[in-house]
Hints:
Elements: E1 3-8, H1 19-27, E2 30-33, H2 39-42, E3 49-52, H3 64-75, E4 80-85, H4 95-105, E5 108-112, H5 117-125, E6 138-142, E7 164-168, H6 174-183, E8 191-196, E9 204-209, H7 210-215, H8 225-228, E10 234-238
Parallel strand pairs: 1-4, 1-5, 2-3, 2-4, 6-7
Antiparallel strand pairs: 7-10, 8-9, 8-10
Helix pairs in contact: 3-4
Amino acid sequence: xxxxxxxxxxxxxxxxxxxxxxxxxxxxxxxxxxxxxxxxxxxxxxxxxxxxxxxxxxxxxxxxxxxxxxxxxxxxxxxxxxxxxxxxxxxxxxxxxxxxxxxxxxxxxxxxxxxxxxxxxxxxxxxxxxxxxxxxxxxxxxxxxxxxxxxxxxxxxxxxxxxxxxxxxxxxxxxxxxxxxxxxxxxxxxxxxxxxxxxxxxxxxxxxxxxxxxxxxxxxxxxxxxxxxxxxxxxxxxxxxxxxxxxxxxxxxxxxxxxxxxxxxxx
Length: 267
């Protein structure tokens, strides 16, 4: 019986996968990969059989139960099986369902973390997701639904109260999310950044206020439909910590209140 490795591919760029992840791709006998994996990363699978099993929002895709069965079957034929997932396997990747199937079949597995797109997006923007005195909490959110939920009413659940909000797969709901946040009391001037195809050569960015997003009034993209209808993965970042550094107000609190002499310092 072989071993299955759930490997995080990272945000997109092939050189942002972990060293362990890259080594496993090179050693793998078979790789079952998501639809959004870059060709440059698949090129790292020098001897593996490549099986696309990706899911795309609003498009025909491989059923999850079939992916689970493919993993079990692959482990019965190959020594090293890699399930290559975009970002990090444990964030919006339905890893629990795949791990449950492997547990039931008695197949050993290992999880190799990856850089999730929220962190890569913050790096691309040059903004921290947390900021002393401004943001001390982050929420990762998705409004994407499983196929079984497709016929349910399209109603957004109430947004978390975290300081910085990160929406995955939020393209179809962007304007509705902004309107809901305004209704829940978020300031109209709250900074918003929309990033597409993060870390790849196709990366694009839009910056605006929460009010602008609610109105779909985007300064840097005259044709709004180009980002609304694109097939590229999209991330929405919202929060005061994402403001321009010159306008961000830091609250140093006790740190700047008084100074300790050398005689009172302790390790």
